[in-house]
């Protein structure tokens, strides 16, 4: 049978045992005893001090324990942060090294023998003008050769915009009042209003130019629509929603958006059914270089531009006042 | 011309790092706008003007506006607003 050691109280094992049994550690016990002794001493002198002393004692004890806990916690957090930083830097450098090694195996940029330069690109560049009627080959590729992909992309974008609208739209008047942050900001900023008066017509005109000349010059429905949307946002930010609502209220935007999407999809579907890629196409292509040329692409650009401009403005209105 | 390209690429890297390391979110967005503008010039030099127009309109314009509005919604640029109102 084993015998208890004389200095068992101060060994590590006894402390662990005490901790497991839920007893208090020795140090705090000592402190408690000491403070209790002083408390007993004071008690004889003044009964009134009892309450305050009790509280002081408790607070002292709690703060001591908190400090002990906090110190351990802080040390653990600091160690964790250090390891986290080292690992983050290590991971960044590893990914960078892997990517750089991969890049060094790629064929050189602009080499005519690259696998990307195959017969598809030759066909697009040589026959693109003849088959699609677009001077800007990129638009011809996006809206004619790969019109089906673009239509799928547009549907994905429309579904995403619809889900965001469902999430953010404020239905009741109370929600609208809470969502609107117009009341916080200084109204009638003269510099912004004067700048907007000069800039907004120019932005609108440039956007319309980019959309209408999408088949002749760089640009197209998406970029032009984004420009018009940015102009509308600038106007709304300078003059407030009350003035934009006179023309671009929710009703008009809904009609414009839905009719643009329906016309876009129906015209592209007509194009697919009558035979894509220029075979058996009943729509006249016109003279390349004229404004009204390249068949359906001109109209599809306008529809896409309307759609994108309305979506941009809708997002801004949703963020600012929770509705159209 | 070559020097100009390297200058632009250097500015791109600088803007990317500065936008990440900046403590103030408002400044970070402005740096991000600068990044998009530099990127649009680089698209122009790579002979893809379509992308340059889209980058300038969407990257530098609309995205930054939506970022600003979001910051306002989560009251991250409240202090400056109060300051402005005090001046008035």
Relevant terms:
heterodimer; A: 324 residues; mainly alpha; 12 helices; B: mainly alpha; 4 helices; 86% helix; flat; disordered C terminus
Describe the structure.
The complex is a heterodimer of chains A (about 325) and B (about 90). With about 325 residues, chain A is mainly α. Chain A has 2 domains: about 10-105; about 135-320, no CATH class. Chain A has 12 helices and no strands. Chain A has helices at about 10-20, 25-45, 50-105, 120-130, 135-145, 145-170, 175-180, 190-210, 220-240, 240-245, 250-275, 295-320. In chain A, helix 8 packs antiparallel against helix 9. The relative contact order of chain A is 0.09. The mean pLDDT of chain A is about 80. Helix content of chain B is about 85%, strand content about 0%. In chain B, about 20% of the residues are buried. Chain B contains 4 helices and no strands. The termini of chain B are far apart. Chain B has about 90 residues and is mainly alpha-helical. Chain B has one domain (about 1-85). The longest helix of chain B is centred in the last third of the chain and has 25 residues, at about 50-75. At the A-B interface, helix 9 and helix 12 of A face helix 3 and helix 4 of B.
Low-confidence stretches of chain A: none
Could you tell me the number of beta strands of chain B? 0
Distance between the termini of chain B: 49 Å
Return residue spans of chain B where pLDDT drops below 50 for at least 5 consecutive residues: 84-88
Q: Largest sheet of chain A, if any? A: none
Structural class by sheet pairing and helices of chain A: mainly alpha
Mean pLDDT of chain B: 84
Oligomer: heterodimer
Structural class of chain B: mainly alpha
Main sheet record of chain B: none
């Amino acid at each position: 049978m084993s015998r208890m050691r004389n200095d068992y109280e101060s060994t590590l094992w006894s402390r662990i045992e005490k901790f497991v049994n839920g007893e208090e550690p020795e140090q705090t016990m000592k402190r408690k005893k000491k403070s209790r002794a002083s408390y007993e001493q004071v008690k004889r002198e003044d009964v009134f001090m009892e309450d305050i002393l009790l509280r002081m004692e408790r607070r002292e004890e709690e703060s001591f324990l908190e400090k002990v806990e906090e110190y351990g916690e802080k040390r653990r957090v600091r160690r964790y942060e250090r390891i986290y930083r080292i690992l983050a830097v290590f991971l960044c450098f590893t990914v960078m090294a892997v990517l750089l090694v991969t890049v060094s195996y790629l064929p050189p940029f602009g080499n005519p023998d690259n696998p990307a330069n195959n017969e598809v690109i030759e066909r697009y560049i040589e026959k693109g003008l003849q088959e699609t009627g677009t001077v800007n080959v990129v638009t011809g590729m996006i809206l004619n050769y790969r019109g089906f992909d673009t239509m799928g992309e547009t549907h994905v974008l429309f579904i995403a915009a619809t889900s965001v609208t469902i999430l953010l739209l404020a239905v009741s008047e109370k929600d609208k009042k809470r969502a609107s942050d117009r009341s916080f900001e200084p109204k009638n900023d003269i510099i912004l209003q004067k700048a907007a008066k000069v800039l907004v017509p120019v932005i609108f005109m440039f956007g319309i130019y980019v959309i209408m000349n999408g088949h002749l010059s760089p640009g197209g429905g998406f970029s032009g629509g984004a420009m018009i949307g940015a102009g509308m946002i600038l106007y709304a930010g300078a003059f407030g929603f009350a003035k934009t609502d006179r023309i671009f209220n929710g009703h008009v935007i809904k009609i414009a958006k839905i009719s643009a999407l329906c016309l876009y999809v129906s015209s592209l579907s007509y194009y697919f059914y009558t035979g894509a890629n220029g075979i058996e196409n009943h729509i006249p292509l016109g003279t390349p270089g004229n404004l009204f040329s390249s068949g359906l692409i001109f109209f599809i650009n306008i529809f896409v531009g309307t759609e994108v401009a309305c979506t941009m403005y809708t997002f801004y209105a949703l963020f600012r006042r929770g509705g159209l | 011309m070559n020097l100009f390209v390297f200058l632009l690429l250097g500015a791109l890297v600088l803007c990317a790092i500065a936008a990440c390391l900046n403590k103030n979110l408002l400044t970070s967005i402005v740096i991000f706008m600068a990044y998009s503008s530099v990127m649009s010039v680089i698209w122009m030099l790579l002979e893809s003007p379509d992308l340059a127009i889209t980058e300038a309109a969407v990257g530098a314009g609309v995205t930054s506006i939506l970022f600003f509005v979001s910051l306002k919604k989560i009251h991250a640029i409240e202090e400056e607003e109060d300051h402005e109102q005090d001046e008035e």
